[in-house]
Amino acid sequence: MQKTLIAAVTAAALVLAYPASARDREYDDIFVVKESSEVPTVVVSGSVVPFKEVTLAAQLPGRVKFIAGIEGESFESGTTLVAIEEDELLAKRSAAYAQLAAADAELRNAGVQYSRELWSPQSKNAPGGMAIPNLFDQMFTRPAEDFFGQRDRGAERSADLYASSTRMEQARSAMLRAQSEIRAIDAKLRDAKSLAPFDGVIVEKYVEEGDTVQPGVPLLKFADVTWLQIEMDVPARLAQGLQAMSVLQNAATFDDHPEPVAVRVAQIFPMADMQRHTVKVKFDIPQGVSKPGMYARVLIPDTTGPSRSQLPVIPSTAIRYRGSLPVVYIQNGQGEPELRMIRQGKQLDNGMTMVLSGVAPGDRVYPNPGPDIMSRSRGE
Known about the structure:
Helices cover about 35% and strands about 35% of the residues. The protein has about 375 residues and is of the alpha+beta class. The chain has a six-stranded antiparallel beta barrel with strand order 3-10-13-12-11-14.
């Protein structure tokens, strides 16, 4: 009987001691929060844009008679994308050519008249009449007029030559005016067609065939989507830490590509926004990652201000979620688990996560809290 009682007491002691020892071993698995050796980063959002993009607008009024295709179709450089009716311009061009032909005929006639005046002056023409009076006039009257100074035939000839040369200049000016009108009409005829400035695709159409447009009305948007970029407004203090052509490893994520990819700083605009205090920055992204218009997020290094100090890091497995809020379980001064809300930062490649707020270096965090710790924590 005594042996049976001793065995029962021993078994009960073992049963009671086992959970405690298991919990002790579980609690012994503690991670001491350390500081990160990496520069803190800030998430900045932007949009994916094509490397080259233009909006073709109407240059003259008229009706759209041709559109090359629909959104997504590719075209080579120089291809006609949109054409506007040019019947009125063609009629004006024909009228200008008729004016040019008339001016050319007038110029040739003026040249002939000038040559005639040069070699056969009109001032020497004999007036009509009978033979004897005409002969008397040529032999006596005209010489007498010249002798007494009543008539200067040289001056008359010079005036006739000047008048002929004036008619030539007027005809030449009319030709130049007609040629200028033709060139102006040809320029408008070229403006009636919108050509592809480079190899690309139609990304958006604003008109359809048959629409009536006025100068300045957008027709379509054409872009080169072979290479894409992220365009965003970066706070001025963060832009100071960026350099052109520098690469940010695993810094960008997209709605249609959640895996982080490397981006390169392509362009930093020289002027900041005076109202928002931001600087426009463009980043090159790898081919085939996303599409124009997609939402993008980039981790920008923060090398200025108070956030230059190193941030604490914890194992990513230590983070649990209460709804959408990230939390961790730390060991308080009494050795008991305690719930702590945190502000999650960048996830590192080594399985650690930077914490912006909520824990401090030296805190003792449970790296993989189980149900027992979660149920016994203070704050649940």
